[in-house]
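This entry is passed on directly below:
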Amino acid sequence: MAAVHVPYEFESCRRSVVSSARRSLNSQVKSKEENVLHKLTYWDKQCDFFTHIHHRRGLVEKAVAHHLGLSSHSSCQAADVKDWMRGSFNLCVPVTVTCGNGSTGNGTQQRRVLMRFPLPHRVGEEFRPGNADEKVRCEAATYAWLGQECPSIPIPHLYGFALSGGQRIMITLSRKPLPKLGSFIIDDNGFLRLENRPLTVELEVLENEHIPLDNVIPRHQSFHSVDSYINRLLSMHDARLRHQPNAVNNIGDCAGQMSALAMMRTVSHEFFDYDLNHGPFVFTLTDLDASNIFVDKDWNIKCLVDLEWGASLPLEFMQPPTWLTNQQCDVIDADKYNELREEFMETLEDEEGKIYEKEKKEQDMHGQPIGRVELSTVMKKTWEIGAFWYILALRSPTGLHALFYKRIQPLYALGHADEGQFYLITHRYWTRGADAVVRQKVADKEVYDRKLREEFPEEAV
């Protein structure tokens, strides 16, 4: 077998990166809710994947030439490794394309495009083969659907793909009702179809950590009602609790998480409007954080990038950005957030009114009735009844426990969370044989901690 040459750029920083990562983890590793043992494998797997792409730069150049309709790939030059760009889930390889009919001094013109690859070790490809293709299909379909249905939303130009003003944007998306909950794909025949499960980052992260979800939310499962989707999301949390080796810290923590999940199911119907149970469903960019929004000097949105994790979701899931206070979801200062939320809502209502008046004039001219569900009205209600926090808990595998006891449980009975009998009774309604599950999870954590001590012998983990 031929030896694999690791580019200098990778090897020269391997030790420093690993050392730095270990130092940052040492003081907090035992209490972290994520599976740190799994994360320790990322660096070597990333280097292997980068090496794989580095050795196939010629194929990258040929692929770019193909998608741009060039007769030869000789005009395409893939960037050096040091110029590659990596995010949490993707690698971007810049490719410079030289055209011979430009207006520069030497008669040529250059432009740069990006070839983007999902990182196999971050999307669960090893544990669930096909996840990388699923991600590419859904993201490419997001570009296609937005370009076709919402052309006013500025996005990058997608040349091709291959397989293995914030409020106004939200309003635009909310006014394109979809028939079911799921993610768009581009099928093998090139057709755009809404047939995939709602592919969100939470699903991919859990599957990447070897949490089995194929029987919970299968890849080809879409949903026609909100309540059926909510039930599957709660089952996703169940799977994490059962299968993540460090899901609990001790007996009390395990009982607390079981109680939270049991109660989340019990009260779910109070947070969602049954009149919206079967729609309208709307396309939602679930990864639309501040780093993915390009603005000009006057803070006008010029482009949205990184359109992964887009899905057709319940209208109630479309909420003001949770990053307004720059805090983790389970520690958001509600009062501080509400001040910014109200400012956001004021602008949203103003923009929504302008769009409505314009549509009303156009429809009145043709004698068409106007039927609509106002996004601002739905957002207001979800905040007032606490559904904002319930939805946030659903979408946060590591934050549900804290959000339930901090934001949801107090809506029903103040003081119950301080009574041991509450947990002793309710945790048994999470599953039959709950006490046996508690014992198993505590044993799993002991094994996990022992492996951590082996990985970090210099620290008393």
